[in-house]
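Tokens as discussed.
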């Protein structure tokens, strides 16, 4: 029985969770679910006759979706965390799957959520997702 559903992005939206179960963070005691997502959206203005069913979207965002999940309230987006600091990085391909800034994993220790990409480890407050600090990783 489905009690809650949330569709993110359009065709072309991806997540490492689809092929790697270790990319998925879930803790029932905290009602916490975290998934890295590369979000795509179809630009409807490119299809004046209507968007074809097989149209792929352009990448518009990459990072971790943080959800609050419970039987009573279902699945709700608590917030989003990205490692991409400059929106112009989109032009350099930093929103795509294999960017060094693509969030691949997440974990928490006490009340701090850590998101991990090849470029850095970022720390956010688990309660309100406020940025705390980051550690740059050298390649």
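Sequence:
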């Amino acid at each position: 029985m489905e009690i809650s559903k949330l569709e993110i992005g359009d065709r072309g939206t991806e997540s490492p969770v689809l092929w790697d179960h270790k990319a998925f963070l879930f803790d029932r005691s905290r009602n916490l679910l975290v998934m890295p997502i590369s979000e795509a959206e179809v630009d409807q203005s490119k299809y004046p006759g209507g968007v074809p069913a097989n149209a792929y979207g352009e990448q518009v965002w990459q990072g971790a979706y943080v959800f609050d999940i419970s039987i009573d309230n279902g699945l709700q987006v608590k917030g989003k965390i990205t490692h991409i600091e400059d929106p112009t990085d989109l032009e350099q391909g930093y929103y795509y799957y294999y960017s060094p800034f693509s969030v691949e994993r997440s974990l928490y220790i006490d009340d701090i959520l850590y998101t991990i990409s090849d470029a850095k480890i970022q720390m956010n407050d688990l309660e309100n997702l406020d940025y705390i600090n980051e550690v740059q990783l050298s390649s």
